[in-house]
Amino acid sequence: MANKKIALVSGANKGIGFEIVRGLLQAGCRVYLGAREATKGQQAVAQLAALGAVHFLELDLRNQATLNTAAAQLQREEGHLDILVNNAGINVAGDGSPSTADVHSVEQVLQTNFLGTLAVTQTFLPLVKQSAAGRIVNISSPLGSITLSGQNDWGLLGYSASKAALNMLTAQLAYELRDTAIKVNSANPGYTATDLNGFAGTDTPEQGAAEAIRLALLPADGPTGTSSSSTAPLPW
Questions:
Q1: Pick the CATH number of 6-228 from 3.40.50.460, 3.40.50.1100, 2.60.40.1930, 3.40.50.720
Q2: Are 144 and 89 in contact (CB under 8 A)?
Q3: What are the pLDDT digits (tens) for 182-197?
């Protein structure tokens, strides 16, 4: 067990997060599967248990107490964290174009997707710093690209803004940690069929997970402070 990389994936009981856990297990990692609801999280762990060492952690991005408890458990059981994948996120009814989006709906999305992810990152960063070569992967979206948003009518201001803010977290944290072995990158799954979009996406969750898995397992000469999909870099 000592040579296994220790990974934590948030929002991992289904969809892309579930497939990221699967891929990291197949790569030989010891994975903590984070989910808000214990029953669903434990069910996901049971589905993946045959692939390797996988454990449930309760993580509610809007409840700091759950983050503190999970971090304390990881500190006791592992002493460090090699890989943090910030996958958890929401989309809500009421989001829309800048002229029509419900302000409360936009606030909800930003609270979870950006501020919640920031809280997770700050809580677990001390454990990542104890790794010999930490990796932080933020699950973003092409909708978070300001460049691409100026060329497309996506009509989801809150979700897009939350992912743009997440990209800012990636860029600034990568710079802050530039003199360490930690690498921080944004992974863009693309239009993946999940319940976030009513399963209307064109890519499978396995395809959506691929870039996050690659970035989580970057070698020492890999990049930091980047935004990319499985096919190409994406503009900020």
A1: 3.40.50.720
A2: no
A3: 999 999 997 666 766 6
